[in-house]
Design brief:
Blueprint (H helix, E strand, L loop, with lengths): L1 E2 L16 H8 L6 E6 L2 E2 L5 E13 L5 E12 L12 H14 L7 E7 L6 E10 L3 E8 L5 H10 L8
Parallel strand pairs: 2-8, 5-6
Antiparallel strand pairs: 1-7, 2-3, 4-5, 6-7, 7-8
């Protein structure tokens, strides 16, 4: 697969806090290619389904007693084998699903994007959109596990330039 250069229109990797628009814009030029996802060190099976797309607005209090608010779009992927006679989902179909969702259940395109991925035998796991690779036939979306974090510590580290500090 050919990785896109970071200076290109669609960078190779984004943070796990990428927006829904980031993914949709990155996919748009590749409508006729097949779409696959890579997570937990493996490629999703070719029969995967987008089983649900949901959007929500969240209000919370972090561990430092700071109010937090954000919107988030969740794309749920069910990792199952291919059904006979069916190929991997094309990008245009994924984009059509997302357009249908936007028409029926409007979501903020700038919302944080989260993937929920599960197979028939495992609990759902949360991932962020981490990267995109494109070759002549396939678009491969790389997902990275989304760990818990301490937001006050994260803000402090960002302000201090990555120095180690204490929490809350």
């Amino acid at each position: 697969m050919l990785a896109l250069d970071k200076s290109a229109t669609h960078p190779t990797s984004w943070s796990v806090e990428a927006s829904t628009r980031t993914l949709l814009d990155a996919l748009a030029p590749h409508r006729e290619k097949s779409l696959t996802f890579f997570y937990d060190g493996r490629e999703i099976q070719s029969g995967y389904h987008v089983t649900e797309v949901k959007s929500g607005r969240f209000d919370a209090l972090d561990c430092g007693a700071n109010p937090e608010a954000w919107s988030e779009t969740f794309i749920q992927l069910w990792d199952v084998p291919v059904e006979q006679g069916r190929d991997r989902m094309p990008v245009w179909k994924f984009l059509a699903i997302m357009k249908k969702v936007a028409d029926e259940v409007p979501f903020d395109p700038e919302s944080k994007l989260t993937f929920e991925v599960s197979d028939p035998d495992s609990a759902m796991r949360l991932f962020g959109f981490f990267g995109l690779e494109v070759d002549e036939e396939t678009v491969r979306v790389t997902l990275k596990r989304r760990p818990a974090s301490c937001k006050p510590r994260d803000r402090w580290l960002e302000k201090e330039g990555g120095a180690k500090g204490s929490c809350c």
